[in-house]
Write a structure and sequence with these properties.
alpha/beta, globular
């Protein structure tokens, strides 16, 4: 009988820096698109499917630390781990494979003069949420992890939740905002829109959290209702409008011809953000790289982002031609996720099948 390890335990091991050899035996293409931070690839997927596992003995299995084998859903890796255990190695199979790992998360911190910002990274999905904490109050932005995990974080920072804000209606993960609002009674803020079919609190021009203020900036383009939140000129929560090395895509859940119009709006929004004074930190809602367990925020100063992202140096005609020619594949199940987020519904049971897959909100 092979040994298994839950995503929570592996997440804890990686957070604590415990020595562990994580071996990903999916195809090379899938590993390149998304993987567990620090893992290595073993090109053994088709051998595993055929019930052959001796290839693992040729890639160097350590004898002095545990190995965790990863596949798509945890079935073939279980057979491989059983083989390695019979060979005398301390081997585990990740329960649920990379589908389950989509819920794993870690955090990093960044401080401004008036607030502490906690970046919560769903490393298995690329979603990033935020806590803004000041003088015992907290605002949650773009919540993407479980309600109980968020409540535990709030307790650890000694903060009372005064609101939850989504920067837009998300397309590649289920928002946890309504669940969190129902559990705590804190208002759920959304940009004004005609998409959702439930009651929400429209985002005001500013939100006060303790000693700090967040200004709401309308930035249509990724979606028509998209906004960014600027905290005292020090940090900019950009949602899916601007990333640290790319920009948001304008085509998800669009009508015919709408991508071009949203791309024009996105260009104008990015020009406005470029002109912001003070060189704030850019803090996006997604990343296309697995967030490592290193405690370092995925963030850059606005001037760095402008220097690094070629789209921000283009004229409008060049921008439109380029972005519309580089649209990547859509996120898996994005239309169903949009439908659920617009309806304010959260599916019963495990959401991993619906949310599984790498993040694809960016255009590079």
């Amino acid at each position: 009988m092979s040994k298994t390890i839950s995503l929570q335990t592996l997440q804890q091991w990686l957070s604590e820096g415990k020595p562990v050899d994580v071996i990903d035996a999916r195809t090379a293409d899938d590993f390149d698109e998304w993987s567990i931070p620090g893992s290595r690839h073993a090109d053994l997927f088709y051998e595993m499917k055929d019930g052959r596992f001796d290839g693992f003995l040729k890639i160097g299995i350590p004898a002095d630390k545990p190995s965790v084998l990863v596949c798509y859903a945890g079935r073939t890796s279980s057979d491989a781990a059983n083989f390695l255990c019979q060979c005398g190695f301390d081997a585990y199979s990740l329960e649920g494979g990379m589908q389950a790992w989509s819920l794993a998360w870690n955090k990093a911190e960044l401080k401004t003069p008036s607030a502490q910002i906690v970046q919560i990274r769903r490393t298995g999905k690329g979603c990033m949420s935020y806590l803004v904490v000041s003088q015992g109050e907290a605002l949650v932005i773009d919540p993407a992890i479980g309600v109980e995990d968020t409540l535990s974080l709030l307790e650890s920072y000694g903060a009372r939740l005064i609101g939850i804000a989504d920067t837009h209606v998300h397309a590649d993960h289920l928002t946890r905002a309504r669940q969190l609002s129902a559990k705590t009674g804190a208002p759920f803020y959304l940009p004004e829109n005609n998409r959702v079919s439930f009651e929400y609190t429209p985002l005001p021009k500013t939100i006060k959290v303790g000693a700090t203020h967040l200004s709401i900036l309308k930035t249509p383009g990724h979606t028509w209702e998209s906004v960014c939140l600027l905290i005292d000129g020090e940090a900019l929560f950009t949602g899916d409008t601007l990333f640290v090395d790319s920009i948001g895509r304008p085509d998800l859940a669009t009508k015919t011809g709408e991508s071009e119009e949203r791309a024009k709006a996105l260009y104008a929004s990015l020009q406005m953000l470029k002109a912001l004074p003070g060189d704030p930190w850019v803090l996006p809602a997604h990343t296309d790289h697995p967030a490592p367990f290193d405690g370092r925020p995925i963030a850059k100063r606005l001037t760095e982002v402008v220097a690094d992202v070629s789209f921000l140096k283009m004229s409008e005609p060049e921008f439109l031609d380029t972005i519309l020619s580089r649209i990547p594949a859509t996120p898996p199940n994005h239309l169903e996720i949009v439908r659920l987020n617009e309806a304010g519904e959260f599916p019963l049971g495990d959401p991993t099948d619906l949310e599984a897959g790498a993040n694809r909100c960016a255009v590079k």
